[in-house]
Amino acid sequence: MATRIKICGIRDARALDAAIEARADFAGFVFYPPSPRAVSAREAAELGARADGHIKRVGLFVNATDGEMAEAVEVGKLDVLQLHGQETPNRTAALRSRFGLPVWKALSIASAADITRASEYRDAADFILFDAKTPKGTLPGGMGVRFDWNLLAGYRGPVEWGLAGGIDAANVAEAIASTGAPLVDVSSGVESEPGVKDAGKIAAFCRAVRAA
Ligand SMILES: O=C(O)c1ccccc1N[C@@H]1O[C@H](COP(=O)(O)O)[C@@H](O)[C@H]1O
After folding, report:
1. Which of 11, 135, 165, 201 has its CA at 20 to 30 Å from residue 27's CA atom?
2. Complete domains list, the chain, with CATH
3. Complex ipTM more than 0.95, yes or no
């Protein structure tokens, strides 16, 4: 089966159009104000409408409140919720039930023990995203940090899963070969600077995934 692609941290129409043109499967919109990729409600509304019918819209949240998420779901017409904070299995299940949308739970990985945490979410999340643990005091993602992909060699999880963290066009073939990831998620690897997506890098990334 073809490896699915998520381009995360899209903030403008040009980047969104590049992701659609390159036939990415998911566009990620960041609803986390400290991130240089955070979108306002107005930007989310414009991007959500533009994406409609062309690419699935993933809202990324970090320990957000129900109210913050409800506004984002409505204005951005979100198809998927990605939880990138310390959301527990109970909180994850509650959000899935409240919004009636598929929920992706991101787990921060630095060791084999971190990967076993996926089983805690077997009844709570629809999808697990394995991302690298980032340095203390920095953003919990979008930092271009990768973990040892060999930790996922031969992985068979209780729910669908994907790989994130430090992936780019130059290393995505290695990432897929090492892990067998059914989905890859990229943010800083397709940027010219933090928060600024590069249409050429988005196209090159998607080509590299398909060639892998
Ligand atoms: O992208 C962000 O700004 C961000 C902020 C807070 C939590 C997660 C974030 N992004 C996610 O992190 C992965 C990995 O990013 P990168 O490719 O290493 O730069 C990204 O795909 C998003 O899902």
Report:
1. 135
2. 4-211 (3.20.20.70)
3. yes
